[in-house]
Amino acid sequence: MAISLDDPRKFRQLTGQAHQVAMNMLRPISRKYDAAEHAYPVELDMLAAMIDGLSESGAGEGAGAAGVRRESASSEQGGVRNGTNLASVMSIAEMCWGDVGLLLSMPRQGLGNSAIASVADDEQQARFAGVWAAMAITEPGTGSDSANISTTAVLDGDHYVINGEKIFVTSGDRADAVVVWATLDKSLGRAAIKSFVVPKGTPGMTVERLERKLGIKASDTATIRFEDCRVPADNLLGSPEVDTQQGFAGAMATFDNTRPLVASMAVGCARASLDLTRELLAEAGVSVDYDRPGINQSAAAARLLQMEADWEAAYLLMLQAAWMADNRQPNSLEASMAKAKAGRVGSDITLSCVQLAGSLGYSEAELLEKWARDSKILDIFEGTQQIQQLIVARRVLGLTSAELR
């Protein structure tokens, strides 16, 4: 199968609508909620209701971050499929052209929803439909090593008892539920790690604090403690069986879907910076000629051309990872490549745009400084730059995690 580099025609209306939302709804309130950290953006309720309506009508495929479950093989009609994964990354990139923090604050569009979509069975898909789910993976002392999770889940009758602490949980305070990663048996290694849906208000689950952050301030980031927190056994996503042959693959399937989404956030934020910087340079009398080599243009124009090329590479890797998921091709390598490239390029572009714009870029007169702050998290969460490079190296060289650390 071949991949076309043109945007799928059936998604053009969706991405056009997302761009209008970003420009007319998100940009105008961007500064307001950057300054009012931890305040919930009430304007998003109307937008969330609109997206729910689109989804229910079938007109909004991929309208938010939730719709990333791969179709079953029986539903394939043959040929190339442009489905929910591709629609999601394209629409999210447009929304993040408006504001990353506000996108992450969207009700019922949490990264935990992607975990449910990736791992849950059909009954759980139906039961958790409409739930806004955060995702809790990172722990104190574990950093990016998701396989070293120490939060435990012990079966007690028809419930699991969860104990542990999670940090940097996006939407951890606002969401309806939290998807918690925990181990069933530490001695069995990464194969025993499962994810559990813990509804908000469950006894034993406590939001300890909200973090004050460099960027994405519109989005709440929580530390959550679990002390003898009892969760129904059927809230374990997927199979409760520990498959030592499969290892960590079941849990990691979540990342194969969410990493392209994070790449799309970086792509959207970087695109916003490039667009504005080009306008500011033009106002300052610096023209950029895309038909001439950069070496024959001003230093500022040459730098912008270089950033445009880097952005294009990240954008295409993002599309490839999502397209492969839609076409039921293993995309773990491509998902990590897209996340690594987009995360690094996003930070580089947004900071470079601040520099090119000089004092105007550094001040709050424009949004460039905010985008530079917001973009950094996109190179960190869902696996840091270093972790992505390690995963890519393992895949390319055919080595296991034990062989290449």
* Mean pLDDT figure: 89
Helix proportion of residues, in percent?
40-55%
Tally of DSSP helical segments: 12
Distance between the termini: 34 Å
Biggest sheet, strands in spatial order?
Answer: 2-3-7-6
Order of helices and strands: HHHHHHEEEEEEEHHHHHH
CATH third-level topology: Butyryl-CoA Dehydrogenase, subunit A, domain 3
Strand content: 5-15%
**Rg estimate, integer Å:** 21 Å
* Domain tally: 1
According to CATH, what is the class? Answer: Mainly Alpha
The CATH level-2 architecture is identified as Up-down Bundle
Shape designation: globular
Record field, number of beta strands: 7
Could you name the CATH homologous superfamily? Butyryl-CoA Dehydrogenase, subunit A, domain 3
Please summarize the sheet with the most strands: 4 strands, antiparallel
Helix and strand composition category: alpha+beta
Q: Which spans of ≥5 residues are poorly predicted at pLDDT below 50?
A: 57-76
Characterization of this structure:
This protein has a single domain, classed as Up-down Bundle (Butyryl-CoA Dehydrogenase, subunit A, domain 3). The chain is 46% helix and 13% strand. It has helices spanning 12-35, 44-57, 84-98, 100-104, 111-119, 122-127, 249-283, 299-326, 332-356, 359-362, 368-375, 385-397, and strands at 133-136, 152-156, 159-170, 177-183, 193-199, 205-210, 221-232. It has a four-stranded antiparallel beta sheet, with no helix packed on it. Strands 1-4-5 form a three-stranded mixed beta sheet, with helices on one face. The chain is globular. The model is unreliable at 57-76 (pLDDT under 50).
